[in-house]
């Protein structure tokens, strides 16, 4: 309260909070969601001279970090930002100023030198509570209601968790600089990191530590953009589990906050929450259910359908295995893809494989005994005539996939590389075109992207498998050709929802996505025919 009248008095008060909390010994820490305010409740014990232990409940506010950093985590040079990126400043302002409740503000927490690096006419940062950390108390600032000085990170977080600020401040953002972030970036109270990743080399003299990837997972990453010759992307990481804090009493370590403690990731600002790429898929379901055209498809099933849509997935940091629907069987997705890309086109599907990816074995068998082989044939062979399951195709036509890999290997930026799934010279294709038409690959700046075109797709059951399967194919080809995966774009002709699936899909729409998993491909393998399931590791 007094803080708002005089920064000097404010400094005194927060300093006092800090000193007194230093006398407490940390006993146990639990993350919890208290009203709208993410806090840590710290059970601290003060040990008196007589050996008595008094237990106090000290709450600390959780926060999110916002920073721009180079690959080697450089953030500043000569007390300033070493780049001019208007889009980054715009993102920073939007993220730190916007609240979902218009009666609330956000707080920005910064080191004294960062405060002083803000041009006088722009400070305090408007519309936000500016919390400046200083041990010395030597801060150039005019009196203002929007500025609070604190003597430590802990005292600032305790102050922001107090009843005065907890309900008035929606989110707390730690915005730098180096000294503060060296202690704050991976600390247990940090629940998300919004980082503008600068991909080009820029000379810096202030550095922060790397993000601890055993604690954080990417939630969203934008495609890279170039501004003032600097390539950068906006990435958000969310905390999945807490660091192993040492338990002072026992000397043991304990997980204090794993993913199960977060009922969902709705602590993220709406602007970021809705950027999770699974929402592209969920929005398509929503659109078909609410405005799709009713039809009866050729097998007599009632469907809702929508013509012409597009979905885009960024493969650079995570793998688009959807998290809100029924469990996707990763082993089957890998096994089916390996069956499709490997060996002879006539190879039968192993009987233990009950596939989903390619429309389901049972469905294929209903149509024609060897239809699964035709399916594989269409994906792998070009200009060969289909002569049944047992025919030998190796000496006929071309292996499409090897042609694709050969073209990509030539490393021509922007080369047109197309995997045609249907061959128009095939009378069966002319009569009944397959749902999969073609996949186009594109190389740019060391990244391999894929654009797929499907004539029709069942959004509820098929799409999650198709996306995972083509994402895996793109990652696999990128891996064998020495590129990194870029984007996967899917263009759908007719996207449909079976009426029988509407209820479970509505249930699915009520769930929030979780961070996508991360794919690692065995770095020792490079021959496309040599991969086995164990060469693909999906973490998280
Ligand atoms: N790229 C980005 O996103 C970004 C963001 C912000 C800043 N920056 C850059 O980072 C550089 C500034 O960083 P810096 O490391 O030199 O300084 P800083 O972290 O901004 O400020 C350091 C000062 O803040 C106070 N302080 C820091 N941690 C504290 C704590 N835990 N408790 C109490 N006081 C604390 C101390 O002030 P006293 O000395 O008064 O005690 C300390 O000397 C500049 O180049 C700036 O442009 C970059």
Structural commentary:
- The chain is α+β, with helices and mostly antiparallel strands.
- It folds into two domains: 2-24 and 62-273, Dihydrofolate Reductase, subunit A (3-Layer(aba) Sandwich); 278-327 and 398-525, 2-Layer Sandwich (Thymidylate Synthase, Chain A).
- It is 26% helix and 31% strand.
- It contains 15 helices and 26 strands.
- Strands 4, 6, 7, 8, 9, 10, 12, 13 and 14 form a nine-stranded mixed beta sheet that branches.
- Strand 17 and strand 18 form a beta hairpin.
- Helix 1 crosses helix 4 (153-161) and helix 8 (278-291) packs across helix 15 (502-509).
- The longest helix is centred in the last third of the chain and has 19 residues, at 463-481.
- The chain is elongated.
- The two termini are 44 Å apart.
- Residues 1-36, 42-56, 243-263 and 351-369 have low confidence and may be disordered.
- It binds NADP nicotinamide-adenine-dinucleotide phosphate (NAP).
- NADP nicotinamide-adenine-dinucleotide phosphate (NAP) is lined by residues 67-68, 75-76, 79-81, 111-114, 117, 133-136, 138, 151-153, 175-180, 183, 206.
- NADP nicotinamide-adenine-dinucleotide phosphate binds next to strand 4, strand 5, helix 3 and helix 6.
């Amino acid at each position: 309260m007094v803080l708002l009248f005089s920064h000097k008095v404010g400094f005194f008060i927060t300093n006092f909070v800090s000193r007194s909390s230093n006398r407490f010994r940390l006993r146990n820490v639990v993350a919890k969601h208290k009203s709208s305010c993410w806090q840590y409740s710290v059970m601290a014990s003060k040990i008196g001279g007589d050996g008595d232990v008094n237990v106090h409940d000290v709450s600390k506010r959780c926060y999110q970090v916002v920073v721009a950093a180079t690959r080697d985590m450089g953030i500043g040079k000569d007390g300033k930002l070493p780049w001019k990126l208007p889009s980054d400043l715009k993102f920073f302002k939007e993220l730190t100023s916007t609240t979902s409740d218009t009666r609330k503000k956000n707080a920005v927490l910064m080191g004294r030198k960062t405060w002083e690096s803000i041009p006088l006419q722009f400070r305090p940062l408007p519309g936000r509570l500016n919390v400046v950390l200083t041990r010395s108390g030597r801060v150039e600032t005019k009196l203002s209601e929007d500025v609070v000085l604190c003597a430590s990170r802990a005292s600032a977080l305790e102050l922001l968790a107090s009843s005065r600020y907890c309900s008035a401040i929606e989110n707390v953002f730690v915005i730098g600089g180096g000294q503060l972030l060296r202690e704050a970036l991976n600390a247990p109270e940090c629940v998300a990191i919004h980082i503008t990743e600068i991909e080009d080399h820029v000379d810096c003299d202030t550095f922060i530590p790397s993000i601890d990837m055993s604690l954080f997972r990417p939630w969203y990453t934008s495609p890279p953009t170039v501004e003032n010759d600097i390539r950068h992307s906006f990435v958000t990481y969310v905390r999945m589990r807490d660091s192993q804090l040492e338990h002072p009493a026992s000397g043991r370590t304990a997980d204090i906050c794993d993913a199960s403690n977060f009922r969902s990731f709705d602590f993220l600002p709406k602007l970021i929450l809705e950027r999770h790429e699974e929402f592209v898929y969920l929005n398509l379901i929503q659109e078909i259910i609410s405005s799709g055209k009713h039809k009866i498809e050729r097998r007599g099933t009632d469907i809702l359908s929508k013509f012409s849509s597009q979905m885009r997935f960024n493969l650079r940091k995570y793998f688009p295995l959807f998290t809100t629907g029924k469990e996707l069987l990763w082993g089957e997705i890998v096994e089916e893809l390996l069956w499709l890309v490997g060996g002879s086109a006539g190879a039968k599907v192993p009987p233990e494989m009950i596939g989903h990816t390619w429309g389901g074995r049972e469905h294929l068998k209903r149509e024609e005994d060897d239809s699964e082989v035709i399916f594989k044939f269409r994906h792998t062979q070009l200009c060969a005539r289909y002569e049944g399951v047992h025919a030998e195709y190796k000496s006929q036509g071309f292996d499409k996939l090897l042609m694709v890999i050969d073209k990509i290997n030539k490393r021509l930026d922007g080369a047109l590389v197309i995997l045609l799934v249907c061959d128009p010279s095939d009378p069966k294709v002319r009569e009944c075109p397959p749902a999969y038409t073609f996949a186009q690959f594109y190389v740019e700046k060391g990244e391999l992207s894929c654009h797929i075109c499907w004539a029709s797709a069942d959004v509820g059951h098929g799409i999650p498998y198709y996306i995972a399967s083509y994402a895996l194919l793109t990652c696999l080809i990128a891996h064998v050709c020495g590129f990194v995966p870029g984007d996967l774009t899917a263009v759908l002709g007719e996207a449909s929802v079976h009426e029988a699936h509407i209820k479970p899909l509505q249930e699915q729409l009520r769930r929030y996505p979780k961070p996508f998993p991360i794919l690692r491909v065995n770095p020792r393998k490079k021959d496309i025919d040599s991969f086995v399931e164990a060469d693909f590791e999906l973490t998280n």
